[in-house]
Design a protein that fits this description.
Helices cover about 35% and strands about 35% of the residues. By secondary structure, it is α+β, with helices and mostly antiparallel strands. It has a single domain, classed as 3-Layer(aba) Sandwich (Aminopeptidase), CATH 3.40.630.30. Helix 1 (about 1-10) packs antiparallel against helix 2 (about 15-25). The longest helix has 16 residues, at about 75-90. The model has no long low-confidence stretch (mean pLDDT about 95).
């Protein structure tokens, strides 16, 4: 269910079926991964509306995933998940969080206070680079 949410959220940015198929393994979640990545799920009316994960060990962590179901994009779910991740990261002793952003989501992360820190290679699409963002807690 959460893997499908992540794929729907990725598809929101207009990617075709071939691109999404290449991302499927990276966006597939299982119970072990959910626990290991400190994953939180936002629910609306008992249904998942979004998810966020925090990885790593202090002082440097990573937002592994932040996905919002397309029907809830723009409703505040993403901001609530972001604030939850920051609170969890602070409580765990992180000083800085990094994240690899979808180019379409860079504006959201900038509004949340993150800064661009460079580019990194995509794990799913050979030859593609993605924005690297940082947030200092």
């Amino acid at each position: 269910m959460l893997s499908d949410l992540a794929l729907r959220s990725k598809a929101y940015w207009g990617y075709d079926a071939e691109f999404l198929a290449a991302c499927r393994a990276e966006l597939t979640l299982d119970p072990g991964r959910l626990a290991a990545e400190r994953t939180a799920v936002a629910e609306i009316d008992g249904r998942p509306a979004g998810l966020v994960s925090v990885l790593g060990e202090p002082p440097l962590g990573e937002i592994g995933m932040l996905f919002v179901d397309p029907e809830h994009i723009g409703s505040g779910v993403g901001g609530a998940l972001w604030r939850h991740a920051l609170a969890e990261a602070r409580a765990a002793g992180f000083g800085t969080l990094e994240l690899v952003a979808d180019p379409g989501a860079v504006g959201f992360y900038l509004r949340m206070g993150a800064r661009r820190a460079g580019e990194v290679p995509s794990e799913s699409i050979p030859g593609r680079t993605l924005p690297l963002m940082t947030y200092h807690l």
